[in-house]
Each structure stands twice: as C-alpha cells, then as structure tokens.
Amino acid sequence: MTLPPPRLIVGLSGASGAVYGVRILQMLRRIGIESHLVISRAAEITLGYEGPLPLAEVRALANYSYPIDAIGAAPASGSFRTLGMIVAPCSIRTMSEIATGVTSSLLTRAADVTLKERRRLVLMVRETPLHAGHLRTMLNLTEMGAVIAPPVPGFYARPTSLDELIEHTAGRALDLFGLECGTLRRWGEPPPSDGSDKEGLSPPSSYDKSLI
User: Fold this and answer.
1) What is the extent of the structural domain holding 24?
2) What is the pLDDT along the chain (212 residues), one digit of tens a residue?
3) Please, is 203 exposed, middle or buried when counting C-beta atoms within 10 Å of its C-beta (0-12, 13-18, 19+)?
4) Which of 24, 140, 146, 200 has its CA 20 to 30 A from that of 82?
5) Which residues pair with 150 in a beta bridge?
6) Does residue 129 fall inside a structural domain?
7) Which of 138, 133, 131, 120 minimizes the C-alpha distance to 82?
8) What is the largest CA-CA distance in the chain?
9) What are the backbone dihedrals phi and psi of residue 59, each rounded to the nearest 5 degrees, phi first?
10) In a domain, 93, yes or no
C-alpha cells in the first residue's frame, strides 16, 4: 500500500496578518510538503488590503485550493490523512466557531475534523487586547487539543527586516508540526546553511541564567 504524501491543511481567515499564511505556503512548497488551502471570504478582503500577493497567486502557491463553501471537499473528512492544520492568521470569529464545533464553512469544518481525529491544530490567533471571553475560548480549545500560537515575533533572532521577522514566526509555527524550514536561527545552535553570514545565537558573556 502506498502511503499518501505528507500533507498540511492551511487556512487563512480574515484577521490582519495574511502574510503569515502566505509565507507558510511558500515554506511548505520549499520543503516539499503538500498544502491544501482554504481561504475565507473575509481573508480574501484582507488580502486585497494587505497583500503581499494577489488572491490568484496565493491560491497558486498551494498544491490544492478549495472554495470556502466546498463542504464535501477532502479536508472535510477524517479519512483524508494529514499532518494537521494551521490557521494563519486566525480571527476571533474563526477561533470561536471552531471552539463550538458548530461549523459553517470548509475552513472551520476542516479544523473540527482535525481536532476530532486528534491531529495537530495550530491557531495563529491575531487579536489584542483580549477580553475574558476570548481567553476562555482559548482555554477551551487548548483543552480540546488545539495549540494557540499567536504570531509573536522573536527578537532574540536579531531580525534586520520585516521579512526576517515573518520568516522566523512562520518557521516557529511549522516547528509545531515537526517540520524544518531550514532558515530558522535557533538559540544555541549553528546558523542555517542558507548562505547567511550571521553568527549563531548564544547568550552574551554577562548573561545571568538566574534571571530566568
């Protein structure tokens, strides 16, 4: 029996930060992971405002792209084997719908299937500040097995551009699936072999570990 290729479902919802989803699609293509894309209608509007690519080019980055109302598509079934799903970015509305299990689109149905099949679901929730209802919903989802991973930049990587910030944040999100993007500058490890001449990351000589 031939096993299916490694697959990841990628959802883009309407929150600001569409660039994270686009970068994740680019990374998956680079490392040879089959991507299955679902974009909400609100995300289509956000892409129009924020870019970084036109909608047609974003869809072309994925191996497969589905209409938001295609509830009979492959990602809607638990028998469609995947590594899991990432929603990048994840709006509060999308997060809340996933938490209830009462889904109204392929995006939230695919997320619900990911949870019920006990696969990894990563939600890059993009909102601040958060009220108690948001936090309770995040707790509920965490208890259901999801990973709440807001796109918080890591400045210890000493980014010199917005592109480096995005790359690092997206790469750390893919870490949650055990996927190596090959470009992350990791603490205490040699720099990636991507042609960069940056030094590896290590604590300064005056670093006081007792402060951790």
Assistant:
1) 7-211
2) 667 789 999 999 999 999 999 999 999 999 999 999 999 999 999 999 998 899 999 999 999 999 999 999 999 999 999 999 999 999 999 999 999 999 999 999 999 999 999 999 999 999 999 999 999 999 999 999 999 999 999 898 889 999 999 999 999 999 999 999 988 888 888 888 755 555 556 555 544 445 44
3) exposed
4) 140
5) none
6) yes
7) 120
8) 58
9) -60, -35
10) yes
| Structural domains in the chain (count) | 1
CA 109 vs CA 22, 76, 84, 92, 136: distances in Å: 21, 6, 13, 16, 21
DSSP structure class, residue 195: S
Structure tokens at 1: 């029996």
Strand ranges in 91-153 using DSSP code E only, listed in sequence order: 120-125, 147-148
Specify if 72 maps to a domain. Answer: yes
* Residue 2: inside a domain: no
CA 186 to chain centre: 19
Question: Model's pTM, two decimal places?
Answer: 0.90
